[in-house]
Amino acid sequence: MSSHTISLTEPLQEYVGQTMVAEPDVLRRLREETGALEMARMQISPEQGQFMKLLVQIARVRNAIEVGVFTGYSTLCVASALPADGRLIACDVSDEWTAIGRRYWREAGVAERIDLRLAPATETLDALLAEQRQGQFDFAFIDADKANYDGYYERCLQLLRVGGIIAIDNALWSGLVVDSGADDADTLAIRALNLKVRDDQRVQHSLVPIGDGLLLAVKQ
Q1: Which of 5, 89, 148, 212 fits a 20 to 30 Å CA distance from 171?
Q2: CB 9 within 8 A of CB 51
Q3: What is the C-alpha radius of gyration for the chain, rounded to an integer number of angstroms?
Q4: C-alpha 40: how far from its chain's center?
Q5: According to DSSP H, which parts of the chain are helical?
Q6: What pTM was estimated for this model as a whole?
Q7: Which phi and psi (to 5°) does residue 59 adopt?
Q8: How far apart (Å, rounded) are the C-alpha atoms in residues 168 and 151?
Q9: How far is CA 180 from CA 93, 122, 188, 209, 220, in A?
């Protein structure tokens, strides 16, 4: 037993990947193609993708939202865990990056489960609220521009049913959340949302130290 979460050294990281990550070939190839891009750091880790896939399966998610698609690795993880009639509304503004993901979604046979909406996510979420979709979603994953995290959180919380889960990426922000010298807008936004979720009586929460920190909030 241990009273602290163990730090993952490079050998331990390799051990986790080699022994515990069951990454299908289509996901591996998507991850490797994305890894060659200049913005590759925006992609989640394979162990986080597997964790999210398991979470979606355990929660029996049927309707999901993703804010921030990039090249679609997390999208594919979530969509592959949905039932055949499940739907994931995926929000992004880049046709270039999401075009990479669309190729792999089709190959994996889950493209019909993914409703990609190329527009600012606040507009897409506000449209869902205007359609009276409150309480109709089971899961939301937020991994986009940090300055708007609070707005995404509030909108997704309205759209989720009681018992629904919001997963917020980058909650540890490469350690900058505890760096007293880091006062940029993104870091301040993440710190503020972490504290807000901690004190939010509308949810139960847990910060999982996987990837860059995955903050989970379950709607009460």
Answers
A1: 89
A2: no
A3: 17
A4: 16
A5: 10-19, 25-35, 46-58, 73-81, 95-108, 121-130, 149-159, 185-199
A6: 0.96
A7: -80, 0
A8: 12
A9: 32, 30, 11, 20, 33
Residue tagged 């493209």 (tokens): 111
Contacts of 25 (CB under 8 A, 6+ apart): none
Q: What is the pLDDT of residues 120-174, one digit of tens each?
A: 999 999 999 999 999 999 999 999 999 999 999 999 999 999 999 999 999 999 9
Task: Give the torsion through C-alpha atoms of 200, 159, 124, 80, to 10 deg.
Answer: 100
**In the predicted structure, residue 2 carries a pLDDT above the cut 70:** no
Strand, helix or coil for residue 63: strand
Tokens of 85: 């009639």
Whole-angstrom CA distances from 68 to 15, 41, 178 are: 29, 14, 25
Q: What is the pLDDT of residue 4?
A: 81
